[in-house]
Amino acid sequence: MLHLRRFARPSLVALAVTLGSYGLAWAQEPAPQAAAAEPPATTDKAPLPLDELRTFAEVLDRIKASYVEPVDDKTLLENAIKGMLSNLDPHSAYLEPDAFAELQESTSGEFGGLGIEVGVEDGFIKVVSPIDDTPASRAGIEAGDLIIKIDGKPTKGMSMMDAVAQMRGKPGSDITLTLVREGGKPYDVKLTRAVIKVKSVKSQLLEPGYGYLRVTQFQVNTGEEVGKALARLKKDNGGKKLSGLVLDLRNNPGGVLQAAVEVSDHFLTKGLIVYTKGRIANSELRFSADPADASEGVPLVVLINGGSASASEIVAGALQDHKRAVVMGTDSFGKGSVQTVLPLNNDRALKLTTALYYTPSGRSIQAQGIVPDIEVARAKLTREQAGEMLREADLAGHLGNGNGGADRPSSSFAADKARPQDEDYQLGQALNLLKGLNLTRGQ
Fold it and tell me: Which phi and psi (to 5°) does residue 311 adopt?
């Protein structure tokens, strides 16, 4: 339910903020011609560094003349461009045609690979988060795992783009990743590549009155899907307003900025959602909520963890600043920069960091993340087995309930069907908090 009247339409249209398969946030220009015809205004008009340009030309000539194997000009120049961008920050990059196409595919919800979101840490490839229902998540890969080898090839010093290119491949083909978890010993995981179809929104009733809404990734249509899911949860609750809702953003690596704004707007009725600031005027955007409230003011708990990044942090930060939700879990990833994707000739593009984004209260998430209101670490639950204990209702000749209530013998306490909150400690704690809030409010 994004209403475009709420914000100015800049010449650099912000189409998406995503961590995608590259751990980045991005916005795309409407057309390459616009970038060529109207470069961003800047006050930096320093003269060209002629000495450095002469050195560059000399190095180019020396390589061509003396390197052990012939190297063509195109290869050398493209490598030079990649080098320029790789030394700026982990998210700026030169996108060749395949990489540019894959970046666009990743926000459509379908692409080939392992279903793993990655970044770079200390020269190694680090898992930001596995995507639900993909080869990576089914193999038990977790946020924070370091990928030290891909098919036996060390990743130390490998660029994120090269790592992603190696992990992607023909569906059905195998790949072996060597992982290290929390300083432990390296171990191998063999995976089979697949076509990754990401369903961005999942929902269900945890129990009567209490809903669960999971957003796995912010895609172009996620805002609309969340609106539908909220309506469906109310319908499943007999048409009654929910007593509480858990919004699960754990291991959500980000996605489309507009979708993050729309999802936030479903729970907010006024005020700023997010704003961006950069060096050029075109990078400054502000997004505000409209009065509509698809959530009907339902008590809300937002779950986050170290795999919650970028657009996820925008949503969690906005709801936390407006005190619309209690944020629970562990510190988020801390990805608070925006990359602008600038199309070039021949289906190539530059992905360039152009801005930082800020929560409504002015917090920069970059390299810090969202700190939950209530910290709840992940834990494994071990349920005690129910003993064969007799109850009053099991005794022969027991008196009936004075108010006419039905007997409840021990046999009526048979194990219920497994529920998500029974195996997920953080989710169970979120549900308990919602129930407590309702009790104290007299609902």
Answer: -60, -35
Integer Cα distance of 233 and 81 in angstroms = 50
The C-alpha atoms of residue 149 and residue 138 are separated, in whole angstroms, by 20
Question: What DSSP letter does each residue of 347-414 carry, written as one string?
Answer: T-EEEEEEEEEE-TT--B-TTT-PPPSEE-------PPPPP----GGGSTTPPPPTT-PPP--GGGGP
Which of the pair, 375 or 87, is modelled with greater confidence? 375
266-285: average pLDDT = 93
Of the residues 129, 335, 337, 424, which is catalytic? Answer: 335
Q: Rounded distance, CA 395 to CA 278, Å?
A: 74
318, 274 contact by CB (below 8 A):
yes
Least confident of 81-95, 216-230, 298-312, 381-395: 381-395
The Cα 103–Cα 22 span in angstroms is 8
Q: Active site includes 361? A: no
Radius of gyration of the chain (CA): 26
Q: What is the pLDDT of residue 402?
A: 87
Concerning whether 335 is annotated as a catalytic residue, the answer is yes
Sign of torsion over alpha carbons 238, 225, 215, 329: negative
Structural contact between residues 16 and 256, judged by C-beta atoms closer than 8 angstroms: yes
Active-site annotation holder among 310, 312, 332, 337: 310
66: Cβ–Cβ under 8 A, 6 or more apart, which residues?
Answer: none
How far apart CA 331 and CA 378 sit, in angstroms, is 12
The tokens describing 343, both together, are 């199309």
**Token couple for 395:** 């005794």
Q: What is the pLDDT of residue 168?
A: 86
> 14-47 pLDDT, tens per residue?
223 333 333 333 443 333 333 333 444 445 567 8
Is 200 tagged catalytic?
no
The pair of structure tokens assigned to 68 is: 């052990």
Q: pLDDT: is 44 or 383 the higher one?
A: 383
Q: Count of residues for the chain?
A: 443
Report the largest interatomic distance among the alpha carbons of the chain, rounded to a whole angstrom: 103
End-to-end CA distance of the chain: 29
Q: Which of 132, 248, 321, 424 does the annotation list as catalytic?
A: 321
Q: Are 327 and 320 in contact (CB under 8 A)?
A: yes
